[in-house]
Fold this sequence. Notes:
Layout: H1 29-37, H2 50-66, E1 73-76, H3 83-94, E2 98-102, H4 109-118, E3 124-128, H5 135-147, E4 149-154, E5 161-166, E6 171-176, H6 184-188, E7 192-195, H7 201-214, H8 221-229, H9 235-252, H10 260-269, H11 279-290, H12 299-306, H13 310-323, E8 327-330, E9 333-336, H14 338-344
Parallel strand pairs: 1-6, 1-7, 2-3, 3-6
Antiparallel strand pairs: 4-5, 8-9
Helix pairs in contact: 4-5, 7-8, 7-9, 8-10, 9-10
The protein binds adenosine-5'-diphosphate (ADP).
Amino acid sequence: MARETVxxxxxxxxxxxxxxxxxxxxFDPQDRRMDEALRPQSLDDVxxxxxxxxxxxxxxxxxxxxxxxxGHILFDGPPGIxxxxxxxxxxxxxxxxxxxxxxxxxxxxKDLLPYLTNATHGSVLFIDEIxxxxxxxxxxxxxxxxxxxxxxxxxEGLNARTINMQLKxxxxxxxxxxxxxxxxxxxxxxxxxxxxxxxETEDLVEIxxxxxxxxxxxxxxxxxxxxxxxxxxxPRKANNILLRTRDFATLRDPNGxxxxxxxxxxxxxxEIDTLGLERQDRRYLTTLLDIFKGGPAGLQAIAHSMSVPPxxxxxxxxxxxxxxxxxxxxxxxxxxxxxxxxxxGRELPPKSGPGxxxx
Length: 359
Ligand code: ADP
Protein backbone atom coordinates (compact mmCIF):
# COMPACT_ATOMS: atom_id res chain seq x y z
CA MET A 1 0.00 0.00 0.00
CA ALA A 2 1.34 3.43 -0.89
CA ARG A 3 1.90 5.84 1.93
CA GLU A 4 -0.10 9.02 1.86
CA THR A 5 1.42 12.45 1.90
CA VAL A 6 3.31 13.65 4.91
CA UNK A 7 1.99 17.00 6.00
CA UNK A 8 4.30 19.41 7.69
CA UNK A 9 3.17 21.15 10.83
CA UNK A 10 2.17 24.80 10.76
CA UNK A 11 -0.97 26.21 9.29
CA UNK A 12 -2.27 28.99 7.21
CA UNK A 13 -3.99 31.65 9.24
CA UNK A 14 -5.81 33.11 6.28
CA UNK A 15 -9.40 31.88 6.23
CA UNK A 16 -9.69 32.36 2.50
CA UNK A 17 -6.38 30.72 1.61
CA UNK A 18 -7.62 27.25 0.63
CA UNK A 19 -10.25 28.67 -1.67
CA UNK A 20 -8.36 27.82 -4.83
CA UNK A 21 -9.35 24.25 -4.12
CA UNK A 22 -13.00 25.12 -3.98
CA UNK A 23 -15.36 24.74 -6.90
CA UNK A 24 -18.89 23.45 -7.02
CA UNK A 25 -20.67 20.19 -7.54
CA UNK A 26 -22.00 17.14 -5.73
CA PHE A 27 -20.54 15.35 -2.73
CA ASP A 28 -18.19 13.31 -4.84
CA PRO A 29 -14.39 13.23 -4.56
CA GLN A 30 -14.31 16.84 -5.64
CA ASP A 31 -16.67 17.85 -2.87
CA ARG A 32 -14.58 15.88 -0.46
CA ARG A 33 -11.65 18.06 -1.46
CA MET A 34 -13.80 21.11 -0.82
CA ASP A 35 -14.78 19.72 2.52
CA GLU A 36 -11.06 19.26 3.22
CA ALA A 37 -10.52 22.90 2.38
CA LEU A 38 -13.08 23.88 5.00
CA ARG A 39 -11.41 21.78 7.65
CA PRO A 40 -10.29 23.78 10.69
CA GLN A 41 -6.51 24.11 10.90
CA SER A 42 -6.04 25.21 14.49
CA LEU A 43 -7.77 24.45 17.78
CA ASP A 44 -9.21 27.96 17.88
CA ASP A 45 -10.80 27.24 14.53
CA VAL A 46 -12.59 24.15 15.87
CA UNK A 47 -16.21 24.96 16.65
CA UNK A 48 -18.20 23.08 19.32
CA UNK A 49 -16.96 19.94 21.17
CA UNK A 50 -15.89 22.40 23.87
CA UNK A 51 -15.09 19.89 26.60
CA UNK A 52 -13.02 17.75 24.24
CA UNK A 53 -11.18 20.80 22.91
CA UNK A 54 -10.52 21.98 26.47
CA UNK A 55 -9.02 18.60 27.38
CA UNK A 56 -6.95 18.49 24.18
CA UNK A 57 -5.55 21.95 25.03
CA UNK A 58 -4.48 20.65 28.44
CA UNK A 59 -2.84 17.59 26.84
CA UNK A 60 -0.94 19.80 24.43
CA UNK A 61 0.13 22.39 27.01
CA UNK A 62 1.33 19.72 29.42
CA UNK A 63 3.21 17.92 26.63
CA UNK A 64 4.91 21.13 25.58
CA UNK A 65 5.79 22.07 29.13
CA UNK A 66 7.34 18.65 29.79
CA UNK A 67 9.02 18.79 26.40
CA UNK A 68 7.60 15.35 25.94
CA UNK A 69 5.87 13.30 23.25
CA UNK A 70 2.08 13.43 23.34
CA GLY A 71 0.41 10.25 24.63
CA HIS A 72 -1.57 8.17 22.13
CA ILE A 73 -5.13 9.42 21.60
CA LEU A 74 -8.26 7.60 20.49
CA PHE A 75 -11.19 9.58 19.06
CA ASP A 76 -14.49 7.84 18.64
CA GLY A 77 -17.78 9.05 17.25
CA PRO A 78 -20.01 8.85 14.18
CA PRO A 79 -18.70 9.69 10.68
CA GLY A 80 -18.21 13.36 9.82
CA ILE A 81 -18.08 14.50 13.45
CA UNK A 82 -14.52 15.87 13.48
CA UNK A 83 -12.20 12.98 14.39
CA UNK A 84 -9.86 13.55 11.42
CA UNK A 85 -10.12 17.28 11.98
CA UNK A 86 -8.82 17.03 15.54
CA UNK A 87 -6.16 14.60 14.42
CA UNK A 88 -4.88 17.13 11.87
CA UNK A 89 -5.18 20.12 14.17
CA UNK A 90 -3.07 18.51 16.93
CA UNK A 91 0.18 18.16 14.92
CA UNK A 92 -0.43 21.65 13.52
CA UNK A 93 -0.57 22.98 17.04
CA UNK A 94 2.55 21.08 18.09
CA UNK A 95 4.39 21.95 14.87
CA UNK A 96 5.16 18.29 14.14
CA UNK A 97 4.71 16.07 11.11
CA UNK A 98 1.55 14.11 10.40
CA UNK A 99 1.25 10.84 8.52
CA UNK A 100 -2.17 9.47 7.65
CA UNK A 101 -3.12 5.81 7.31
CA UNK A 102 -6.36 3.86 7.28
CA UNK A 103 -6.91 0.62 9.20
CA UNK A 104 -8.53 -1.39 6.39
CA UNK A 105 -5.73 -0.52 3.93
CA UNK A 106 -3.02 -2.04 6.14
CA UNK A 107 -3.08 -5.66 5.05
CA UNK A 108 0.03 -6.87 6.82
CA UNK A 109 2.66 -5.57 9.29
CA LYS A 110 4.90 -4.69 6.34
CA ASP A 111 2.34 -2.09 5.26
CA LEU A 112 2.66 -0.38 8.62
CA LEU A 113 6.45 -0.56 8.64
CA PRO A 114 7.17 2.52 6.50
CA TYR A 115 4.89 4.68 8.63
CA LEU A 116 6.61 3.56 11.81
CA THR A 117 10.16 3.87 10.55
CA ASN A 118 9.44 7.25 8.98
CA ALA A 119 7.82 8.66 12.11
CA THR A 120 10.00 11.55 13.21
CA HIS A 121 10.52 12.53 16.85
CA GLY A 122 7.21 13.65 18.36
CA SER A 123 5.29 13.24 15.09
CA VAL A 124 1.73 12.00 14.76
CA LEU A 125 0.57 8.91 12.92
CA PHE A 126 -3.19 9.07 12.32
CA ILE A 127 -4.88 5.72 11.80
CA ASP A 128 -8.48 6.05 10.64
CA GLU A 129 -10.94 3.21 11.26
CA ILE A 130 -8.48 1.68 13.67
CA UNK A 131 -11.08 -0.92 14.74
CA UNK A 132 -10.59 -2.51 11.34
CA UNK A 133 -6.89 -3.29 11.74
CA UNK A 134 -6.09 -6.93 11.08
CA UNK A 135 -4.96 -8.84 14.19
CA UNK A 136 -1.39 -9.34 12.90
CA UNK A 137 -1.06 -5.61 12.18
CA UNK A 138 -2.55 -4.71 15.54
CA UNK A 139 -0.11 -6.98 17.40
CA UNK A 140 2.77 -5.47 15.47
CA UNK A 141 1.62 -2.08 16.73
CA UNK A 142 1.61 -2.98 20.45
CA UNK A 143 5.36 -2.73 21.16
CA UNK A 144 5.53 0.31 18.85
CA UNK A 145 2.94 2.07 20.97
CA UNK A 146 4.30 0.92 24.28
CA UNK A 147 8.08 1.04 23.94
CA UNK A 148 8.60 2.62 20.50
CA UNK A 149 10.18 -0.54 19.21
CA UNK A 150 9.21 -3.17 16.67
CA UNK A 151 10.12 -6.80 16.25
CA UNK A 152 10.78 -7.76 12.66
CA UNK A 153 10.80 -11.45 11.77
CA UNK A 154 13.40 -12.36 9.13
CA UNK A 155 13.81 -15.63 7.25
CA GLU A 156 12.05 -18.89 7.83
CA GLY A 157 12.72 -22.23 9.48
CA LEU A 158 16.23 -22.69 10.88
CA ASN A 159 17.34 -19.32 9.58
CA ALA A 160 14.47 -17.46 11.19
CA ARG A 161 15.42 -14.67 13.54
CA THR A 162 13.83 -11.61 14.93
CA ILE A 163 15.46 -8.25 14.89
CA ASN A 164 14.46 -5.56 17.24
CA MET A 165 14.29 -2.03 15.94
CA GLN A 166 14.05 1.11 18.02
CA LEU A 167 11.70 3.84 16.77
CA LYS A 168 11.60 7.56 17.49
CA UNK A 169 9.02 8.46 20.13
CA UNK A 170 5.83 9.37 18.29
CA UNK A 171 2.08 9.61 18.84
CA UNK A 172 -0.66 7.48 17.40
CA UNK A 173 -4.05 9.12 16.98
CA UNK A 174 -6.65 6.51 16.26
CA UNK A 175 -10.16 7.22 14.99
CA UNK A 176 -13.07 4.84 15.18
CA UNK A 177 -16.79 4.86 14.62
CA UNK A 178 -17.00 1.72 16.81
CA UNK A 179 -15.04 1.94 19.99
CA UNK A 180 -16.83 -1.24 21.10
CA UNK A 181 -15.07 -3.20 18.36
CA UNK A 182 -11.60 -2.29 19.58
CA UNK A 183 -9.79 -5.10 21.38
CA UNK A 184 -9.03 -4.41 25.04
CA UNK A 185 -5.21 -4.56 24.55
CA UNK A 186 -5.37 -1.95 21.79
CA UNK A 187 -7.80 0.28 23.67
CA UNK A 188 -5.64 0.13 26.80
CA UNK A 189 -2.63 1.40 24.91
CA UNK A 190 -4.30 4.76 24.32
CA UNK A 191 -3.47 7.23 27.07
CA UNK A 192 -6.37 9.51 26.14
CA UNK A 193 -9.77 8.44 24.86
CA UNK A 194 -12.26 11.03 23.71
CA UNK A 195 -15.79 10.57 22.48
CA UNK A 196 -17.16 13.11 19.98
CA UNK A 197 -20.90 13.51 20.10
CA UNK A 198 -23.37 15.10 17.69
CA UNK A 199 -23.16 18.93 17.55
CA GLU A 200 -25.60 21.38 19.05
CA THR A 201 -27.59 23.30 16.45
CA GLU A 202 -26.01 26.61 17.50
CA ASP A 203 -22.54 25.20 16.80
CA LEU A 204 -23.63 23.97 13.39
CA VAL A 205 -25.06 27.43 12.64
CA GLU A 206 -21.66 28.87 13.50
CA ILE A 207 -19.94 26.32 11.24
CA UNK A 208 -22.31 27.16 8.35
CA UNK A 209 -21.77 30.90 8.78
CA UNK A 210 -18.02 30.60 9.08
CA UNK A 211 -17.72 28.30 6.08
CA UNK A 212 -20.01 30.53 4.02
CA UNK A 213 -17.53 33.34 4.76
CA UNK A 214 -14.67 31.09 3.64
CA UNK A 215 -16.60 30.41 0.45
CA UNK A 216 -17.22 34.16 0.08
CA UNK A 217 -20.94 33.47 0.02
CA UNK A 218 -23.43 35.35 2.13
CA UNK A 219 -26.05 33.42 4.04
CA UNK A 220 -28.94 34.87 6.03
CA UNK A 221 -29.17 33.91 9.72
CA UNK A 222 -32.42 32.13 9.08
CA UNK A 223 -30.99 30.14 6.17
CA UNK A 224 -27.93 29.18 8.25
CA UNK A 225 -30.30 27.87 10.90
CA UNK A 226 -32.32 25.93 8.31
CA UNK A 227 -29.16 24.25 7.01
CA UNK A 228 -27.87 23.53 10.52
CA UNK A 229 -31.15 21.92 11.55
CA UNK A 230 -31.08 19.52 8.64
CA UNK A 231 -27.49 18.40 8.97
CA UNK A 232 -28.02 15.48 11.33
CA UNK A 233 -25.76 16.96 13.99
CA UNK A 234 -22.55 16.64 11.97
CA PRO A 235 -20.33 19.32 10.41
CA ARG A 236 -19.72 17.15 7.36
CA LYS A 237 -23.42 17.12 6.47
CA ALA A 238 -23.67 20.84 7.25
CA ASN A 239 -20.79 21.51 4.83
CA ASN A 240 -22.30 19.22 2.25
CA ILE A 241 -25.66 21.04 2.31
CA LEU A 242 -23.94 24.42 2.36
CA LEU A 243 -21.92 23.59 -0.76
CA ARG A 244 -24.97 22.36 -2.63
CA THR A 245 -27.11 25.26 -1.50
CA ARG A 246 -24.43 27.67 -2.63
CA ASP A 247 -24.78 26.32 -6.17
CA PHE A 248 -28.49 27.11 -6.08
CA ALA A 249 -27.77 30.59 -4.75
CA THR A 250 -25.24 31.22 -7.53
CA LEU A 251 -27.86 30.33 -10.12
CA ARG A 252 -30.96 31.86 -8.56
CA ASP A 253 -30.05 34.86 -6.44
CA PRO A 254 -28.75 38.01 -8.16
CA ASN A 255 -26.24 38.45 -5.30
CA GLY A 256 -25.55 34.77 -4.87
CA UNK A 257 -26.92 35.02 -1.35
CA UNK A 258 -28.26 31.94 0.41
CA UNK A 259 -31.72 32.93 1.59
CA UNK A 260 -34.17 30.71 3.44
CA UNK A 261 -36.23 30.22 0.28
CA UNK A 262 -33.17 29.13 -1.66
CA UNK A 263 -32.01 26.84 1.15
CA UNK A 264 -35.47 25.26 1.38
CA UNK A 265 -35.62 24.76 -2.40
CA UNK A 266 -32.15 23.25 -2.46
CA UNK A 267 -32.96 20.84 0.35
CA UNK A 268 -36.19 19.92 -1.40
CA UNK A 269 -34.32 19.02 -4.56
CA UNK A 270 -31.66 17.18 -2.55
CA GLU A 271 -34.53 15.27 -0.91
CA ILE A 272 -33.44 16.24 2.57
CA ASP A 273 -36.59 16.35 4.69
CA THR A 274 -37.56 18.44 7.71
CA LEU A 275 -35.67 16.18 10.13
CA GLY A 276 -32.62 16.15 7.90
CA LEU A 277 -33.25 12.60 6.70
CA GLU A 278 -31.90 11.75 3.27
CA ARG A 279 -33.33 9.27 0.80
CA GLN A 280 -31.28 6.39 2.15
CA ASP A 281 -32.39 7.11 5.74
CA ARG A 282 -36.04 7.04 4.69
CA ARG A 283 -35.43 3.90 2.68
CA TYR A 284 -34.12 2.25 5.82
CA LEU A 285 -37.30 3.17 7.68
CA THR A 286 -39.65 2.11 4.87
CA THR A 287 -37.76 -1.18 4.45
CA LEU A 288 -38.20 -1.84 8.15
CA LEU A 289 -41.88 -0.94 7.90
CA ASP A 290 -42.81 -2.64 4.63
CA ILE A 291 -40.66 -5.74 4.62
CA PHE A 292 -40.31 -6.42 8.33
CA LYS A 293 -43.64 -5.05 9.56
CA GLY A 294 -41.80 -2.48 11.65
CA GLY A 295 -39.40 -5.05 13.15
CA PRO A 296 -37.73 -6.38 15.10
CA ALA A 297 -35.35 -7.15 12.26
CA GLY A 298 -31.67 -8.04 12.29
CA LEU A 299 -29.10 -5.70 10.79
CA GLN A 300 -27.98 -8.29 8.23
CA ALA A 301 -31.55 -8.86 7.03
CA ILE A 302 -32.21 -5.13 6.62
CA ALA A 303 -28.87 -4.67 4.86
CA HIS A 304 -29.66 -7.55 2.54
CA SER A 305 -33.09 -6.15 1.66
CA MET A 306 -31.62 -2.74 0.94
CA SER A 307 -28.55 -4.14 -0.89
CA VAL A 308 -26.35 -2.01 1.32
CA PRO A 309 -23.38 -3.29 3.37
CA PRO A 310 -24.34 -3.78 7.03
CA UNK A 311 -21.36 -1.63 8.09
CA UNK A 312 -22.74 1.29 6.10
CA UNK A 313 -26.07 0.99 7.87
CA UNK A 314 -24.47 0.72 11.27
CA UNK A 315 -21.96 3.53 10.75
CA UNK A 316 -23.73 5.99 8.48
CA UNK A 317 -27.47 5.54 8.83
CA UNK A 318 -28.38 4.15 12.22
CA UNK A 319 -26.61 6.54 14.63
CA UNK A 320 -28.80 9.49 13.67
CA UNK A 321 -32.01 7.42 13.45
CA UNK A 322 -31.33 6.06 16.94
CA UNK A 323 -30.48 9.44 18.35
CA UNK A 324 -33.65 10.94 16.85
CA UNK A 325 -35.77 8.18 18.35
CA UNK A 326 -36.90 6.94 14.92
CA UNK A 327 -35.63 3.42 15.53
CA UNK A 328 -34.71 1.40 18.58
CA UNK A 329 -32.20 -1.39 18.99
CA UNK A 330 -33.60 -4.29 20.95
CA UNK A 331 -32.00 -7.66 21.70
CA UNK A 332 -34.20 -9.11 18.93
CA UNK A 333 -33.31 -6.52 16.33
CA UNK A 334 -34.12 -3.05 15.05
CA UNK A 335 -37.61 -1.69 15.56
CA UNK A 336 -39.23 1.33 13.97
CA UNK A 337 -40.89 3.73 16.44
CA UNK A 338 -44.22 5.56 16.41
CA UNK A 339 -42.29 8.82 15.86
CA UNK A 340 -40.87 7.42 12.62
CA UNK A 341 -44.34 6.39 11.41
CA UNK A 342 -45.65 9.83 12.20
CA UNK A 343 -42.76 11.48 10.36
CA UNK A 344 -43.34 9.35 7.28
CA GLY A 345 -47.13 9.84 7.49
CA ARG A 346 -47.61 6.10 7.81
CA GLU A 347 -49.84 3.96 9.96
CA LEU A 348 -48.29 1.96 12.77
CA PRO A 349 -47.87 -1.59 11.51
CA PRO A 350 -50.37 -4.07 12.98
CA LYS A 351 -49.29 -5.92 16.11
CA SER A 352 -46.58 -8.29 15.10
CA GLY A 353 -46.19 -10.57 18.04
CA PRO A 354 -44.45 -10.48 21.41
CA GLY A 355 -41.32 -8.42 21.74
CA UNK A 356 -42.38 -5.91 19.13
CA UNK A 357 -42.93 -2.33 20.16
CA UNK A 358 -46.47 -2.70 18.91
CA UNK A 359 -47.29 -5.85 20.81
P1 ADP B 1 -14.59 12.33 10.84
O1 ADP B 1 -13.10 12.14 10.77
O2 ADP B 1 -15.13 12.22 12.23
O3 ADP B 1 -15.35 11.47 9.88
P2 ADP B 1 -13.98 14.97 9.81
O4 ADP B 1 -12.98 15.43 10.81
O5 ADP B 1 -13.45 14.52 8.50
O6 ADP B 1 -14.92 13.83 10.42
O7 ADP B 1 -15.03 16.15 9.63
C1 ADP B 1 -15.74 16.35 8.44
C2 ADP B 1 -15.70 17.81 8.04
O8 ADP B 1 -16.45 18.56 8.98
C3 ADP B 1 -14.30 18.42 8.05
O9 ADP B 1 -13.71 18.41 6.77
C4 ADP B 1 -14.51 19.82 8.50
O10 ADP B 1 -14.70 20.68 7.38
C5 ADP B 1 -15.80 19.78 9.26
N1 ADP B 1 -15.61 19.84 10.73
C6 ADP B 1 -15.44 18.77 11.53
N2 ADP B 1 -15.36 19.16 12.81
C7 ADP B 1 -15.48 20.50 12.81
C8 ADP B 1 -15.50 21.48 13.84
N3 ADP B 1 -15.39 21.16 15.13
N4 ADP B 1 -15.64 22.78 13.50
C9 ADP B 1 -15.78 23.10 12.19
N5 ADP B 1 -15.78 22.22 11.18
C10 ADP B 1 -15.63 20.94 11.47
